[in-house]
Amino acid sequence: xxxxxxxxxxxxLAMLALGACSQPAAGxxxxxxxxxxxSSQETAPATSSDELVVVTHGSFNLTDELKADxxxxxxxxxxxxxxxxxxxxxxxxxxxKDSPLGDVVFGIDNTxxxxxxxxxxxxxxxxxxxxxxxxxxxxxxxxxxxxxxVCINADLAWFEEQGLAVPTTLDDLTKPEYADLLVVSNxxxxxxxxxxxxxxxxxxxxxxYLDYWARLRDNGMDVVPDWSDAYYAEFTxxxxxxxxxxVLSYATSPAFTIDEETEESTTVALLGTCxxxxxYAGVIEGAENEAGAQAFIDFLLSDEVQSAxxxxxxxYPVATDVDLPAEWVEFAPLSTAPxxxxxxxxxxxxxxxxxxWTATVLG
Length: 363
Description:
The protein is of the alpha/beta class.
C-alpha cells in the first residue's frame, strides 16, 4: 500500500487552482533589465505601517502557527492574498503596479522573474538573513527562498512488470520502446509544463527544441492541461485507470510514493531531464510597508520556516544546513546537473517558445 501522497494532493489542488486562474502570458522583453540601484541611491527610509499585505502564489502554505509567530514577533496585522500561479502572480503585479496589491510577494520563480524586473514591480532588497549557501541562487532584485527540480517521473513497478528498462535521458523518451508512455502538462497553462519546455530549450537549443517536441509528439506523447490531470488521471502509479507510466512531475515526488510494506518508493525521478525552479520573495515597488516586507522576507529565511518548507511546500529550502525528511534523503535527490537557461533569455523568448510549442505539438 502506498502512503497518502500529501505532496501530490497539495500540489494537485494548487495546480488545479493555478490553471484556472490564467495562462502564463507575457510578451517578450523590449527593454534591457533595469540595474539595481547602488547603495548611495538607497537613502530614503523604508516606509512602514501597522499592516502588511503578503501576496503569494497558490501553493504558498505556511501553518497558522508560523503565521501567528510572525504576526506576534512583528506586531503587524498581516493579510495574505493569492492571485494564482507564478505567471498569474507576476501578471497581476504588473497590471496593478500603479496601485500595488500588497507590500511583499512570495512565489515569483525563475521562469517569470525577468518580467517582474523589467516591469519594475519589485524594489531590490538584500536580506541579512540570506545564508551563504544560497549564493548559487543570487539575484540582484529578489531574495531566493526555496527551489526544486521539475523532472520526468517513472512508475518503477510498471517497468518491472513489462521487463522494460526505465528511460534515463530526454532522448530515451523518443525511442520506439517508450511509445505512448509519456504524459506532460501544457506549458501554456501549467507551471511544471513551462519549466519542462524551458528544459528542452536548454538541452537542444532554440534551433533544436521544436524538433525534439515533434519527435515526442510522433512517439505518442499525451498533453493535458495541468499537473493534476497528468499525475492523477494519466499516471499509472498515482490514480485509478492511468495508462501512462512516465509523467512530468517533481524530483521530490518519489518521497511521497513509498510502499509501506517494502519501505521503498514506487516511483523515481529521471534526474537527467530536470529543470531547476527557484522561488523568490521581493519587496513590491510602491509598498506602504517596506519595513514590514523586509521583515517578512527575513522571516521566510529563518530556521523555523526553512526547516518547515519541505513538509509544507514540498520544496528544498535554500538553507542547506536544514535537516531534510529521511524520505527526501533516500528517495528525492536533486539532479547533479540540472538543465539551465538564463533569466534574460527566458524572459525574452517565453511567449515565442509557448507559441511555437503550441503550433508544433497541438497545431
